[in-house]
Amino acid sequence: MVKNKERKGLGGWLAIVGLGVVGGPIQLAYSVLPMYYDIFTDGTWEDVTTEGSASYNSIWGPFLIFELTFNVVFMLFGCYLIYLYFTKHHLLELQLKAEEKS
Length: 102
Known about the structure:
- The chain has one domain.
- 67% of the residues lie in helices and 0% in strands.
- The chain is built from four helices and no strands.
- It has helices spanning 13-41, 44-49, 60-87, 97-101.
- It is elongated, with a radius of gyration of 21 Å.
- 0% of the residues are buried.
């Protein structure tokens, strides 16, 4: 069994993993935040949550709040993964299993 080797960098194939780790929260924020901004500023929120309006449904309010909360938590978790990735934290092991076996 190989002793724990010193981690030297995040190059090679780990750079591709890094692109996904960094790009995920950015892509989520870029695609989701403008949508929620529009929902809460153009009157859509009032339209779907006001009783008697044409597009009212009692599930819209809780659904939109849940979805917004979930997406914000997901973005924060993505930022935490970025921190773990660049600090090479032990919680985010990026070593190949082949290294352990050789």
